[in-house]
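Hi all, long-time lurker, first post. I run a small reading group and we've been trying to get comfortable going from sequence to structure in the token notation. Rather than ask abstract questions, I figured I'd post a concrete chain and ask someone more experienced to write out its structure so we can walk through it together at our next meeting. Sequence below, copied exactly:
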Amino acid sequence: MALGTLASRATGFLRTLIIGVAIGGLVGDAYNAANTIPNIIYELLLGGVLTSVVVPLLVAAAQRDTDDGEAYAQRLLTVVVVGLGVITLLAVALAPTIIRLYLVNPTVAPMATLFAVFFLPQIFFYGVGALVGAILNVRGSFAPPMWTPVLNNVVLILTGILFIAITQTDAVKQGRLTSSQEILLAAGTTLGIVVQTLALLPALRATGFRLRPRFDLRSAGLSAAGRLAGWVFIYVLANQAAFLVITRLATAPKNGSFTVYVYAFTLVLLPHSVVAVSVITALLPQMSRNAGLGRLDAVGDDLARGLKLASVVLVPSALAGIVLGPLIGGVLFGHHAFSQSDGRLIGATLAAYAVSLVPFSAFQLQLRAFYAMQDTRTPALVNLVLAGINIAADLVMILVLPAAERAVALAIGYSISYFVGYAWFTVLLRRRLGRQPQAQVGRTLVRLSLAGLVAAVFAYAASHAITDALGIGLIGSVAGIVAGLAIGVPVYIGLVLRMRVPEVLEVRELARGSMRGGPTG
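-- Answer (accepted) --
Happy to help. Here is the structure in token form:
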């Protein structure tokens, strides 16, 4: 799974890089705002349910029903296809109204509306793909959902390259695109999602699952999903209310702040997606089975192991983002429609996000522990408060920092909310699952953090010695990043091995096994 996710995120990173330098800040605000809206609507109406309560329910159906839960899954799939089909058509019809809600800058509103008309059908394919992926996971097939996003990324990479070939940099910087250029971006983006979803169907058939519509929904056991979904809806609603405020704050200044915010978040998600998402995907069915059997001590052990394993990679990744963020942003994005200063601003925003990489990933793992126990109420109530903290912190930070650094201010506010969320969830889970696993996590985090901080000091000194000599242009920045990693990574690995942190040795063995065995279903 980690290999599949790594391939997906690596190509996704390249996709983001190519699209980013192709469209820059002004067009980027229109593109990213419109491209985020399908995710918002999907998450609000269904996505939170599919990624949280569906796996535990599918596991329960597989344990309860004589057909391994196939009929139950078929009914769920039928509801999703019909429901999302109707929602998607309605969303496309309301595209202009939706864009006005999220986008403050009127300059790019017509372009964003055209993008939205093409992007909103993604809602349907996101939902179908997520449910098919959940069915595959419950049936023990984890690799296909991790690998199919590569196809989406390839389509987007080709779209970005073609866009660069047919556009002029000055026109893009001024937000002046022809209709054909806009349609190329829009159609290519949605085509990638369609290909990604359709590519899952052969893997589903390979598990023996039959794609069959079922409308015998009465007494089908879907009421449990409805009860759990109500609280998930509140959880997602809180997230989207906060995101609406963030989007409007970020698009208010006409300097591409929203695009900077989005691309920095994409960068910081790379280690989370490769490590934490793989752990979450593997642990959720297992935690759900243990919770269903009433073995809450085993749920606590599963969660603690997942947190410790993920932290081995996430702690140094966070510190690398903080120390090297501006250099990384300048090297990756300071080209074509972006200036070098734009790239460094993306890197500074990355650093602000990286502060909360470990709490953010830990929060997501803890959230799945609640969902495994079929408790959606507690996370929803907590998240209502966290959304308020996020908004309040954002408003304070944009008053403290200059308007040009608004993306950095919003990233700091986001980080503050996840520090609070992780601490809060830790207290709640300690009461429910026991103190011992959480204490083990704390000890591991302290040891990893001490090793990481020492390595970060050496990396910072090495990178700045190089940039002081060569400057912060492309050559100096690349050399600074290389020097920082060349010094910091060996120091971190040497220290954690010397400390004999058990999870480090386990990660090493897992990596060796992956290299020998490759991806499996």
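A couple of things your group might point at:
Residues 22 and 165 are 9 Å apart (CA to CA).
The chain is about 85% helix and 0% strand.
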